[in-house]
Amino acid sequence: MNLYAIFITLLLIASALFFGYDRYRNRKREPQLTFDELRRLLRRSLRELSCSPSWRWEDRVLTCNYDYQGGHFHIRINSEDVSAELAFLFVFEAPATEVDIVRQLANLCNVNSQYVRIIYSMNDDKHSVDVHILAPLTLSRDNAKAVLQAAMDEAFQWRNAFGQRYESMLEKNQDDGIKDYESERSNFSREITLLHEQEIAHQPDMPNSRDNADDRVSLRGVLTTLLGIESFLPKSLYVTAGDTTRRISTDDISDYPVANAIIGKKDDGSMGFMADNAVMRLSFYDKRRPDKERRLVISLNSEGQDSQTLYYRLTATLIPLSSQPVSPMGSQANTPLCRSALMGFDIVDPQKKLSEFLYVWKDAVDKLQRGEIDKLSDEELILAKATIQPVAQVSFLGIRRFNQGRYLEAIGLLQQAYDYKNEDMHKLRQPKDDDWKTYSNICFYLAFCYMELGLYKQAYYYLDLLLPQRRYAYTTEYVNCMVNAHDLRALNMIDHLLETLTPEPSDDDEKDDDEDEKEEDASLGSFLSFLKRRKSYVLIEFRRYDEAEKLLKELLDDPSSSDFAINELAFLQKLKTK
Q1: DSSP per position, 156-198
Q2: φ and ψ at residue 321, rounded to 5 degrees
Q3: Distance linking the first and last C-alpha atoms of the chain
């Protein structure tokens, strides 16, 4: 048998084994729960959580009411689509005149929650706003109790957080005389913007500055930015939308626009979603390890649209390699890697988008020329300092996409803005304060984007540039980055900050009436509380339970940290009993 015949035989055997394993894996997949199974799982889980539910039928929906740790909960099981939803009703009440604050807080909580979502309803009889917490329950035979308990625990946390945040926002708005909350929110400073992530809104595009006016992200861009794979050799790409699967030519794989998998031109000539979801299956060779074929699965799901933008969520999963001597258990090669990002496809007229940009840019430049720097937002300041129009456009679009939560797309634009500004700063013999502010803001935007995507090493690069400025917001993100990345230096860094910033006890009983110093003291106290919370988290990660418990008990006396301390002490107690 010649060499060519041997190669063909081995290839056929490998293909048979691969597809055979695929069929076996699909056959082993757990079937969907039936209605009776779901009901039994909930009954058993509630019994194990020491709850005594009362059950009743309402049309085709089975409902139960029960109490758990002082809270009254309600579960609905739909017999038609076999789904369950948890409800924690009437957790907060506010006057109808404060509906703007309630709406903002609901949006903020829903962006950051894991299981639950917060909704509100108007009570016309009492002229009030009622706040409710809902949580869809995705249960399996193995995780029913854990998911149910986690959802209820998170509901308690968000109830407490909602009430505390409402009071602080109400007090601040009354002090500042703010009535148009939505308008004022868009003009908040950089730090407030990060704390109050805005809802996804209109995103204008950069006309004719990339491959096409639609500014589509290529598959190469996803691998490079989202997964850190900068050099790869594509082998095959299959795109499945609905019942249709098509293979993409090998020469077109690298530059294939990922939006094409789910978005296309309709019969009337407009652009729209061709399916609710799509899947891309890529086989490739990473040039860093060309001996092993890698597989990447990209899922795209429709996230709705407005009159100007189609939104979709992209989730990329890099399939790990099997454990081998060259890639032992726990190595990067056989560790699953999954990244997700919200994307947008703009369908508005490019000239309209350009006109909007020119208007904002010209207004910012005019304010700067009149010396009205204090009236410029961070976004406008960056635009006003950009002396070349394309640079200003990159900054403008990057920040807008950041505010929409489209972090992956924002990175590409903000990186260009950073490169331009970094080069510009080298040319200036003595950069001005607003030059440094613009540079710092771009770094912070980039760091925040990378943090949201879980790319902590990249975020660390930009946060390290900001650390010498000794600003609470920058240092807070720096500490969060180190802790979230499980950096061994995190604990030493936190201890150093606590030792440096904790004020010495003073015998001076005189009261200082200086408002600026009072505000600084409050900011410092809040930052020190944050550092102690992060330190307790790291101590638990390092299994230094006694030290963590001592610190958490101290935090019980801190109003801003008491809820956190109670939850962490309970979690710590569970760890100790294992």
Answers
A1: HHHHHHHHHHHHHHHHHHHHHT---HHHHHTT--HHHHHHSPP
A2: -80, 155
A3: 61
Quote the tokens at residue 386. 């950009």
| Confidence (pLDDT) at 193 | 30
- Predicted TM-score (pTM) of the model is 0.48
Amino acid sitting at position 96: A
Q: CA-to-CA distance for 394 and 398, rounded, in angstroms?
A: 6
DSSP character for 209?
S
**245 confidence band (pLDDT: 50, 70, 90):** very high
For residue 297, report the phi and psi dihedrals to the nearest 5 degrees.
Answer: -115, 125
Query: What residue type is 531 in one-letter code?
Result: L
Please report which confidence band the pLDDT of residue 433 belongs to, taking 50, 70 and 90 as the band edges. confident
Please answer whether residues 513 and 557 qualify as being in contact, where contact means their C-beta atoms are separated by less than 8 angstroms.
Answer: no
Q: Per DSSP, what are the bridge partners of residue 400?
A: none
What is the rounded CA–CA span in Å between residue 563 and residue 553? 11
Please list, residue by residue across 112-122, b when 16 or more beta carbons sit within 10 angstroms of its beta carbon and e when fewer do.
ebebbebebee
Average pLDDT, integer, range 316-343:
67
Q: What's the pLDDT at 298?
A: 92
Flag whether pLDDT at 75 surpasses 70. yes
Residue (of 252, 289, 259, 284) closest to 274 by Cα position? 259
Residue 116 in contact with residue 133, Cβ under 8 Å? yes
The single residue listed with the structure tokens 């090998």 is 250
Tell me the CA distances in angstroms from 280 to 256, 259, 476, one per residue in order: 11, 11, 38
Backbone angles phi, psi at 565, to 5 degrees: -65, -40
| Joined tokens for residue 135 | 């949580």
Residues in the chain: 578
User: Distance between CA 472 and CA 478 in Å, rounded?
Assistant: 10
Pairwise pLDDT comparison (357 vs 44), residue with the higher score: 44
Contact 42, 59 (CB under 8 A): no
**Which residues are registered as beta bridge partners of 86?**
75, 135
**Phi and psi dihedrals of 88, rounded to 5?**
-120, 95
DSSP string of 324-351, one letter each residue:
BTTB-TTSGGGS-EEEEEEEEEE-S-HH
Residue 8: how many CB atoms within 10 A of its CB? 11
